Amino acid sequence: MRSTLNLKQKSKDGETLIYLKAYFKNEGKKFVYSTGETIHPKEWDFENRQPNNLTGRTAKADKQRTVKTQLDRYTNFFSKITDLYQNTGQEITIENIKKEFDKEFKKTKADASSFFIVYDKFLKEKNDDRTDKANSTTTIKRYEYNKKLLEDFETSTGKKLNFNTINKDFYNNLINYCITEKKHSTNTLSRNIGLFKTFMYWAVANRYTYKVDFKDFKNVKKEITDEVALTLKQVIEIFEFDFSNNERLERVRDLFVFGCFTGMRYSNYSKIKESDIIDNHIKVRDKKDNKKALSIPLNDYSSYLLKKYEYNLPKITNQKFNEYIKEVIEKVGYTQNIKKTTKLGKEIIETISPFYSRVSSHTARRSFITIMKTKKIPDKVIMSYTGHKSLEVFNQYYKPNNDEKVDFMKSVFKMETTQLKKVD
Predict the structure, then answer these.
(1) Full-prediction pTM beyond 0.70?
(2) Is the four-CA dihedral 166, 168, 173, 178 of positive or negative sign?
């Protein structure tokens, strides 16, 4: 029994589905099964029933070879399963062969064709396996947000999402939606596209789809953000500010400067216990990546704060902490306006806001790294404290301020012995 590949329709306007067909003589009917692959009729070799551009090293040739590979899986499976039925004496019917195809290519699950039910299975697997950095609580929340983003996109366009429609048009429309409707910055957009592609690779690996157009989706290049970082002088000023008449803000302040003095993430240092202090070091597992064992030497300030709270630092949720720390910084007097530039598509957006509104729990970690680098501490030493493995990611935390930039410039280009030339 032979199978053939045919286009759904000979459209001149766009891509069309490719079907596998076979005539079942005993039933007098045709078995028709969608491969999920699409192609423009101009790119189809009607005589040999395959893509017609399979040579060369162009992007189009690569894509057509990928389509051909997927089509071969369908034709080979048809030959394999019909031979098996013949050799084992089973009745070859359209219904039976369709069930075998569903089992092989769609996993025969009633919900397998639903894009968002498959996404839920993806989320469950990630939640069940927290041993990998890629499955941290923060990352899981981002995957959950990405699902909500796709649901909102589906509602906005009025077109139901399914794996067969994940193509270049989908990608361009999603990018446009994120920029114009969601007002996503370049970095947010880049992160969300990366998360989406991770899901699609998982869906392919688990045989929920064989459509791989998403591999050609070029991610948006991230930009270096102009987030704020505090100098050592500023951190000390915050540390010494008198909050004795406001216990709430004093506790928030102490938690914040502890982060500035250790470089730890808030999720790590907010849960320190006395048993975590060994040989004058803070020794804990990184909450974001539990494969990392952190060892941060105590200094005068971090040791003082731990003793002040008897090794039981105040407990505040990250959300409340980020709200209260802005109040702390405003009370200290950092109310000057600063400018932030954000790239939104091709447009550069400038916003003016007070300094204190830009401070969050993560500012402490960024300030620690900036202070240490300014003091010429080697990167490898600082990274051993912060737990960074990637120098590229680590360097994104370094935010020298304007005074430091001026000092660096003057320290390099100094005229000490050279006679100044007369300027007319």
Answers:
(1) no
(2) positive
Backbone angles phi, psi at 415, to 5 degrees: -105, 95
What distance in Å separates the CA atoms of residue 107 and residue 234, rounded to the nearest whole number? 60
If phi > 0 it is left, if psi is from -120 to 50 it is alpha, else beta; for residue 342 that is beta
Terminal Cα-to-Cα distance of the chain (whole angstroms): 95
pLDDT at 303: 93
Q: What is the pLDDT of residue 181?
A: 87
Residue with tokens 């910055």: 185
- pLDDT, block means (10 residues), the chain with 424 residues: 85 80 92 90 90 80 87 92 86 90 66 77 83 64 92 91 87 88 82 92 79 82 72 94 95 95 88 90 81 87 94 90 94 87 61 86 90 89 85 70 66 61 57
- Domains present along the chain, CATH in parentheses: 4-105 (no CATH), 115-216 (1.10.150), 232-411 (1.10.443.10)
Question: Phi and psi (nearest 5°) for 188?
Answer: -65, -45
Q: Is the alpha carbon torsion for 164, 169, 175, 181 positive or negative?
A: negative
Spatial separation of the C-alpha atoms in residues 83 and 60, rounded to whole Å: 35
Rounded to an integer, what distance in angstroms lies between the CA atom of residue 48 and that of residue 76? Answer: 16
Q: Which residue has the tokens 């505090």?
A: 230
DSSP state of 7: E
**Cβ pair 268, 286 in contact under 8 A:** yes
Residues 253 and 241: beta-carbon distance below 8 Å: yes
- Which pLDDT score, from 0 to 100, does residue 292 have? 79
Angle of helix 247-262 relative to helix 318-332, nearest 10 degrees, comes to 100
The alpha-helical segments, DSSP class H, found in 184-274 are 186-205, 232-240, 247-262, 266-269
Please name which of 371, 362, 359, 364 lies closest in space to residue 398, comparing C-alpha atoms: 371
